[in-house]
Amino acid sequence: MERTARASHPQEVNLVKIGEDGNMPRPIQAIVLLIGISVLAPCAAMGQSHGSGGYWDRGRWIGYMPPHLKQTVSDEQAVVARADGSRLAEWPVEQSSVPSQRGRHTQASYDQESLEEIDPVPLMDESVMTAPNVGGGCQESCGPGAGYDCGPDCSPDCGGCTLFRQTTFWTRVESLGWWTSGMNLPPLVTTSVAGTSQEEAGVLGEEGTSILFGDQAVNEDSRSGIRAVLGMWLEPCQVHGIEFSYIGLGTESTVFRGSDTGQGAHAILGRPFGNLELLGQDANLIAYPSVYSGWVSVDASTKFQGTELLLRKAIKRCPSSQVDLLVGYRWLQLKDDLLINQHAVEAQTTTNIDLYDWFNTKNNFHGAEFGLHWTRPLNCLWTLEAVGKFALGNTRSVVLIDGQTTTVTTGGTTVTDGGLLAQESNMGSHTRDHFATVSEIGLNLKRRFTPRLEMTFGYTFLYLSDALRAGDQIDMNVNLAQDGEPTQIASPAVPMKSDGFWAQGLHLGLEYAF
Predict the structure, then answer these.
(1) CATH class of domain segment(s) 24-39+168-513
(2) pLDDT, tens digit (0-9, with 9 covering 90-100), for 324-350
């Protein structure tokens, strides 16, 4: 870290929250627009023929089959070509005297030689099949290979089912519009009404003192992000698979600038703290009429990301629903950064005083994860998914605190360690390991455009039980007379205060199987 105070001189007081413009966040606007398009799109967008409107059930084809694929061989028996061409399926055919829709009976005629051999006729694209002949468990319509979205509810008028997809890989990319729990800050910058004495200016609890920044949570507004998933099935039946995913939210920042000059200026600016020498509240003055002139800035930022590596195993897979067991590893990282810069000039001596306080926290969670992934087709085009995950592990938290004061006089420049809230008693690196858990629930709605391409839209909530935030590591009680003697009160200290962290929001993306 460069131990250099900010050199710019702000001209006004303002508070800017990056990513907040008063309007609906852009990711959510895009979500609403694309959902509307997908709902209005006709069901025929799948572009599948009626020939795929059925499925195999214990050697029998259930559903619509074009007449040219049927061969009537007798009053007692019919032969139909299998989709994979491996064998012929047979079943009895009952005679019926019920008139056809065209009002006449159909008299079958055939050549006896046709009973000997019939060339297999493919029913559809070989890459999209029902119950492929690939070994145990893939023959039945309720087996892992039957395809979770194939069943009698798929009408031929809807383009038929998107059947079992003989694919090895799948990938999904989603745009996120999420919110996170904020970073709590103590009162950091104060002002007082005109006429307040120098001894009471900026001091908390005194009449006329107000807080300009702090005593609030920051970085809790919506922000954009990305989630990417890559998976692979380990066998053709698609019973076992592995999946890797990454999630990252953009860095959210809150910036405050205060000055005694320019638009929105405050004649009195101070930084409050508890003075252990006075045993009471005090303030470090930055601006006061005819005494000090200066400015103060506060920059607070938060970043969140994580990865997963999971093994998937199908424990239930039927036309009506499927359930996969998830087991694997999870990593999450939460980082906070808080930098306070101030610059003051003494009116009488023109002495320049620059100082900064810096607080940084980094939390890394590593743990074993378990979960369930449930899928249910609503119709030929829409599928509902739900996921629940729970991870157990350790959070390693590292707190970095630093500060520095630079004094420039006519006689030279003096640099000393320590600012105001960062002193010798709390500066340095501090590490803490603690047991933690991660919980996640999610709902996802898929809209199919082709047998391989789907749009995803949903909601996710994630909770990390233990994390250190930068604002919670500030001790407002300061002993300005620290000299390293054991009899001196070592303050400020490092609270190492932890709290839970949550992240939640909407996502919109595309999934492709290949």
Answers:
(1) mainly beta
(2) 999 999 999 999 999 999 999 998 888
